[in-house]
Amino acid sequence: MTSLPLTLKKISHFLERLPGIGEKTANRLAFYLLRMPENDLKDFANMIASLKSKIKLCSSCFNFTEEEKCEICLDKKRDQGMITVVESVLDLLSLEKGGIYQGIYHVLHGRIDPLNNIRPEDIYIEPLIKRIKNNKEIKEIILATNPDMEGEATAIYIREKIKNQFIGSQTKIKITRLAYGLPIGANLEYADYMTLKKAIEGRNEY
Known about the structure:
Elements: H1 6-16, H2 23-35, H3 38-54, E1 56-57, E2 64-65, H4 71-74, E3 79-86, H5 89-96, E4 103-107, H6 126-134, E5 140-143, H7 149-165, E6 174-177, H8 193-201, E7 204-205
Parallel strand pairs: 3-4, 3-5, 5-6
Antiparallel strand pairs: 1-2, 6-7
Helix pairs in contact: 1-2
């Protein structure tokens, strides 16, 4: 039985570890890389090699960036008084499609999930609370965690943390939750543009 050369086999096995990639797709991708012009392949390899060292988290919102702050946080045209809280950068990218939202973000990089030992302190909730406390411009927090059990639990936890933070304070911050046109259990990453547009427009006090 014909077998792949060892190097090609190793590359195929590595590609198979990526999300959504099966054995056949991994083999096709490995063959495609082999057929690429050598200079393109070297550029690709260099980009992969420097991925960890070049990409870091925005010091304000925890979006991915190569600088101290991401482009969204530095954009003076955006509404700095409105923060949308999302679970992941992929959710942020979904909301950015079509220019339906012009505020800024806070990326949690996860959600509260006791079954998988993910606690509030394991994601970026405390930096969000500090950010709200230290920024008097903030007028609204949009909780855009996913509409599943863990996402809802995370939203409730954040809502209570914010409310408790400002008990007896003159500061008034509106807390809203997306009015999802999404089915329960769906993820923002896979939502279409119009569904997200309606969700943003129809958000409710939370």
